Amino acid sequence: MASGAPDYERIVTVVAETQMGVGAPDWTRIVVGAGGVPIGGTSNNDLISSDRDFVGWTFDPYLATADGVSAASGQIAFALVKATKTTSISDIWAWFENAGAGLTSDENYLGVYSFTGSGVFPTTMTLLGATAAGLMDTVPGAGHPAAYALASSVAVTAGDLYYVAALFNATSRPQFNYLSDPSYTSSIPVNPTMLSTASTYTTLPSSLVGANVTYSGIYFWSAIV
Questions:
Q1: Residue 88: beta bridge partners?
Q2: Rounded CA gap, 59 and 13, in Å?
Q3: How far apart are the first and last CA of the chain?
Q4: Inter-residue contact 48 to 84 (CB < 8 Å)
């Protein structure tokens, strides 16, 4: 992706706070983020991921006011993030409301995809890195934002857009805290979440065709660091 893409972090924060009527900060929701820096607990539109020592996130976690969303077993959920600097990332942060149940061994992963295409709509998607087999079988850290290590570091470029991917095969899938944007349309999403629809998976595929994903109006919180 070429640098200079729209700053979707700022857009989704402004739109969501306007629509949701976010007022005074909810200081009870402050949690420690990357580098020991608090995240959440503020509705300041000027705060973006780099202010909290993240390389990129889907949106300010303060706006993740709902919980209980998950993809179907074997489906991959994708959330858009923008890298704010050129660096190597080693962790994906996610906020699971619960750890799920009956997770199939070695069939649960988080990962990062690059993509080609126009704007935020992928033509092809390429897996850059993922968590190691078995790491997500128990979803440590459920109930609050937590870091999940990639099996190897991934190089990202400032200004480029990436998709964080989540795959679970389980009787009851882990559920994300999320932002539901009532202004969402499939043609012009503010900060799209996508779901794989062509088939189910037991591991994150090395590549995907954009036509095999569909867009959703529910945005789960995740970050890269």
A1: 155
A2: 6
A3: 19
A4: yes
